[in-house]
Glycosyltransferase
Amino acid sequence: MDSRKYVVISPCRDEAEYMKRTLESVVNQKLTPTLWLIVDDGSTDGSKEILADYERHYEFIKVMSRENRGFRSVGPGVIDAFYAGLQTVDLDKFQYICKLDLDLELPDTYFLTLIEKMEADPRLGSCSGKPYNEVNGKWVSERRGDEMSVGMTKFYRRDCFIQIGGFIREVMWDAIDCHKSRQLGWKTASWDQSELNFLHLRVMGSSQNGVLTGRARHGFGQYYMGTGIVYMLMTCMYRAIEYPILIGGAAMFYGYVKAMFKRNLRNPDHALVGEIRKFQISSLLRGKRRATELAEKRNSARWDPTDLECGREVLDSRIRNQLADDVSMLSQPQVSQAGL
């Protein structure tokens, strides 16, 4: 098998404004995907026509269409669409898998560089570049931590992806996966390098209902993940200097506290929550870089890339649940989504 074969799965809904820039940046990669499966999640804005045109011109692009649920659903809805595509893919034919949003502009070295980094470190399970926003003609960093691969472009070694059981269908799935990977002895990372930095065409933490709703949803997700309140407060203070200044960080904390007082569901994986809390406390005391090094050292003995049976069962279960939910959703009348 070609050791550099990779599959990209892109959930999308109503991305006509941005997707051409993503499409062009991927088809012009120095190492193009073996398969790029784009899952259109009921678009109504002309996305389908754009995708059909690219599918005609590029053999490695395949488009899958889902029924229109009647609203845009970020977080769990994105993972639903991702799994709808994944269930049609034979993962054993690929060495790497990427979940890629269609509101990005990647450098042409992006995927080649990630694979080279994977080849250099067999424990590297997931990685990415760094997202930037364009503000007044200048690139401004979204300030993402080095210890995580970013959610809009999750590039995974196949065996790591299988071992963690894929993505959980909850807000903050894109942090939970990295913590789970580290718990199992893998490394996750992102790098601020010219070969990897990419343009995020949509503002970080935004939502179909506005930026503040997106930030509040982030706080809700942190609560679900198991984040402690002190660490959450520090995170909100760190993000308070970003647009919208002060109130964005306050909205995050509001989402967390609201979920706490409502006694919302929390991550049922208690061992993972313990690992997350340990990492967060270590980050506050020592800084994230040192905390990451300690976590990687602490869990190194757990690393066994051949132990895939349990992860496959979890992944298969999540795909089956998604398919069952799709059938249920299509049998219900369409309604609008509001709130978080």
